[in-house]
Write a structure and sequence with these properties.
- It contains 20 helices and no strands.
- By secondary structure, it is an all-alpha fold.
- The radius of gyration is 21 Å and the shape is globular.
Length: 447
């Protein structure tokens, strides 16, 4: 492993190299969704060509977002990622809203949700019950928070090891599926096509929304810029490499699903990977796949737990949160208080079950910020005082395409679920009066 390049100006240790950063991109994106519920996409576009077109196009759009983040990361190699980009391109108020939504709902909510999924699949092997599942979920959050409390090297090494194991397991599934799934393929090929195989533009758009959510988390590597070696080069490379790896895995895994299962089964199953394993190896295959889901969700959770506190640390350093959240551990050089606070709130969400309502109502608002981030890149190009190591390929088409896609996701959500969408947006906008009250106390200067 490459030796660290020394502490950053803030005293954070630069222990994250290219391998670790790429593993964070891959491991954070690949959680449970690709093993559990590709049915949503297949249900909207129940043709082989349509399914592959959706996954490929989602990969391209995610790559567009990664390229936008890559340029911004090379321009502002600071902890906080998206928060910093919104602060610099628009105002501290918009950056605050991102961090506000992250802590109360988006980021903490996804930690709670993935921890619960992990616990449910542990329940495949041990009878837990609802209380036991919550205990395992909270214990998982506590363990990963403790690992990251001890140091960014511990967290990034754990993430790399788990991601490597996850990719090896996915490779084995792909190989075994195509090599030994011949009998299952004969049955799948003989099955009649699902009813309503024709689809329209609206169905394709809905499938795209589902697919893009399966790619979520690609931006989180930018949160750790001050702990990354040569972040102006490392983060852009990690974003591009990681996105390409994930896209390849998603397309090949869906190829296996469609090879061994009838289209109607893929469209209706909420455990499609287990169904595919059972079709190839019998009932024992489902147990192996459940173990992989546990392993995969644990790995995704590791990266998400690692990333979030760096945003709260950056906000506190800017005076947008309590100053004590911006302090580093004297020996570990980690934002230890932010890590503990995040773990406590995510555990509260697990314990109360409120993450379901909060997360599902608010997660779509993430794409408003992503669209604004892409527009912000265009605005920042006008500033003569900025330098960058990387310039986004295809400028300005790439950021405009990504911004348009982001706002389309938001529009689709508002049209399909207007009440839930307005409620979720309201929860985010509650942060504005909080920001101005903070400004009034002269802790920050309003932007």
């Amino acid at each position: 492993m490459t030796a660290p390049s020394g502490d950053s100006a803030t005293g954070m240790r630069r222990d994250i190299g290219l391998n670790h950063a790429t593993a964070m991109v891959v491991g954070t994106i690949i959680g449970a969704s690709i093993f559990v519920q590709p049915s949503e996409i297949t249900g909207h576009v129940p043709t082989t060509l349509g399914i592959f077109a959706v996954w490929a196009l989602c990969g391209v759009l995610t790559l567009c977002g990664a390229l936008v983040c890559a340029e911004l990361a090379s321009t502002f190699p600071q902890s906080g990622g998206v928060y910093v980009y919104l602060r610099e391109s628009f105002s501290p108020a918009l950056g605050f809203l991102w961090g506000w939504a992250m802590f109360w709902t988006m980021h903490s909510g996804i930690i709670a949700a993935i921890a619960v999924v992990c616990a449910r699949y542990v329940g495949f092997f041990v009878d837990l019950g609802d209380g036991g599942q919550r205990f395992v979920a909270i214990g998982t959050i506590a363990v990963l928070s403790a690992v990251n409390y001890l140091g960014v090297r511990h967290g990034s090494v754990l993430q790399t090891v788990i991601t490597a194991g996850k990719l090896m397991a996915i490779g084995v599934i792909i190989f075994l599926g195509f090599a030994f799934g011949g009998d299952a393929h004969v049955v799948a090929a003989a099955a009649p096509p699902p009813p309503g195989a024709d689809f329209g533009a609206g169905d394709f758009a809905a499938a795209m929304v589902a697919g893009l959510f399966a790619f979520g988390g690609w931006h989180m590597v930018t949160y750790n810029a001050e702990e990354t070696m040569d972040p102006k080069k490392t983060i852009p490379r990690a974003l591009v490499l990681g996105t390409l790896v994930v896209t390849g895995c998603y397309i090949l895994l869906n190829g296996v699903y469609l090879f061994v299962l009838p289209m109607a089964t893929v469209a209706s199953s909420d455990r499609v990977a287990a169904e595919a394993a059972n079709a190839i190896f019998g009932r024992g295959g489902g147990a192996a796949m459940s173990a992989l889901v546990v392993f995969s969700t644990f790995g995704a959770l590791s990266g998400i737990v690692l990333a979030g506190p760096r945003v709260y640390f950056a906000m506190a350093r800017d005076g947008l949160l309590f100053r004590w959240l911006g302090e580093l551990h004297p020996r570990r050089r980690t934002p230890h208080r932010a890590i503990v606070l995040q773990g406590i709130w995510a555990s509260v969400l697990v314990l109360t079950g409120t993450y379901r309502t909060l997360f599902t109502r608010v997660i779509y608002t993430e794409w408003i910020f992503f669209g604004l981030m892409a527009i912000g890149l265009i605005l920042l190009r006008r500033r003569k005082d900025l330098t960058r190591e990387y310039s986004v390929w295809g400028y300005p088409v790439v950021p405009l395409v990504f911004a348009g896609s982001s706002f389309t996701i938001v529009a689709n959500q508002i049209v399909s679920q207007p009440v839930e969408s307005v409620t979720g947006l309201g929860l985010v906008l509650i942060g504005l009066p909080v920001y101005w009250l903070w400004a009034k106390k002269r802790l920050v200067v309003p932007g």
